[in-house]
Amino acid sequence: MLKLFLPVALFALVVSCGDDQSITGPGKPVSFEVSPVTYSAIRLATPMGNLNPPGHTFPSDHMGFYLAGDQTYLVRAYAAGTIRTVYYNSGFDDYRIEFKHTNTVTSYLDHVENPCTSIKVGTNVQPGDSVGWATSYLDIGVTDYDTTRYFIVPGRYHEKTLHAGDVYLYFQSDVRERLLAKNNRTAAPRGGKIDFDIDGALAGNWFLQGTPVTWEASSYLYAGAQLAFVYDMWDPSKIRIVCGGGWSAAPFCCLVDGNAPDPASVTQNSGFIKYQTIHAASSDVVAVQLIEPRHLKVQVFADTTRALVSGFTENAKIYVR
Q1: Which of 14, 31, 97, 198 would you call most buried, defined as having the most Cβ atoms within 10 angstroms of its Cβ?
Q2: What is the mean pLDDT of the chain?
Q3: pLDDT of residue 258
């Protein structure tokens, strides 16, 4: 969700269960049959692609619901499956519950408060079964191993990101339409987009040179090494520059003055590029130059304007894919 993700540990209450062939056979389609919370409880349904550094410097791989008012709402299972894991999130004092639906599809509910006593690893659930309660927000993610997102270096991403499914598409059509009615994004895909990498261009995710090639590289653990040139989750016609740390102006998630040049069109031939960012309190310049297809020279000039920036200084850094 848009709430800042704090770097806190997730403690596993229980270990993952093994592959359970009794729930569904190979290749059986998944149908999410009910909304996890009553429709009247949903104030806003989000697409994927939330940007909120440092926790979400890169577009988030799940969607979510902001809930109405201050009351607590019942959370329900939305599809048949087996509870695979239950995690306690100490930073938020709530839980993430993961379900296995088929041999290739799992999903999870995050920020569930006070899970029902029946919610244990290995328990089978059916659509509509009570899971727990939620008050402010609820996240939902799908991992579908028949779907693969495009990132230039896949080894830097967790499997939940590499195989993130568009959550809305898994709901049966009548439920999907009611949930999309709560979603203010009008551009296709309505469920959002998270993978913007273009090899040889500026668009997408970047890592400070020296960041290890492990899935943790894209997690909050390496937020200070993350930089993204992507697009707004609500209006993807708008450029967003997102930085998790490493500069005096960071973390930031900014629109661009003039909304140009499009990162998808910036290549080695573009030379030295200066983006004027739009902040609530100040304005910075993010200077970039692709020196190789997967090597980007970057410098963030805090509280200044394009006219005052003529080139890089010794403080510039190299980011890679």
Answers
A1: 97
A2: 91
A3: 97
User: Which regions of the chain does DSSP assign to beta strands (E)?
Assistant: 10-12, 42-45, 63-67, 73-76, 81-89, 94-100, 105-112, 124-125, 130-134, 137-144, 204-208, 226-231, 239-243, 252-256, 273-278, 285-292, 295-301, 317-320
> What would the mean pLDDT of 204-225 be, rounded to a whole number?
98
Q: Name 260's bridge partners.
A: none
Report the C-alpha gap between 95 and 76 in whole angstroms. 14
Q: Where in the chain is CATH 2.70.70.10?
A: 10-180
- The answer to whether the CB of 247 falls within 8 A of the CB of 285 is no
Question: Is 3 a residue whose pLDDT tops 80?
Answer: no
**Residue 281: its pLDDT value, please?**
72
Residue 7: cis peptide before it, omega within 30 degrees of 0: no
> How far from 35 is each of 130, 135, 170, 173, CA to CA, in Å?
12, 16, 11, 12
pLDDT at position 17 over 60: no
Res. 249: pLDDT tops 70:
yes
- CA torsion sign for 307, 313, 315, 321 is positive
The CATH number, out of the four listed (1.10.8.140, 1.10.10.10, 2.70.70.10, 1.10.3720.10), of the domain defined by the range 10-180: 2.70.70.10
What is the per-residue pLDDT across 116-133, written as a single tens digit (0 to 9) for each? 999 999 999 999 999 999
Half-sphere exposure of 21 (CA within 13 A, CB side): 1
Q: Which of 154, 140, 139 is nearest to 106 (CA)?
A: 140
Write the secondary structure of 127-188 as one string of H (helix), E (strand) and C (coil): CCCEEEEECCEEEEEEEECCCCCCCCCHHHCCHHHHCECCHHHHECHHHHHHHHCCCCCCCC
Handedness of CA 184, 185, 186, 188 (dihedral sign): negative
pLDDT tens digits, one per residue of 279-289 = 777 789 999 99
Give the per-residue pLDDT at 70: 85
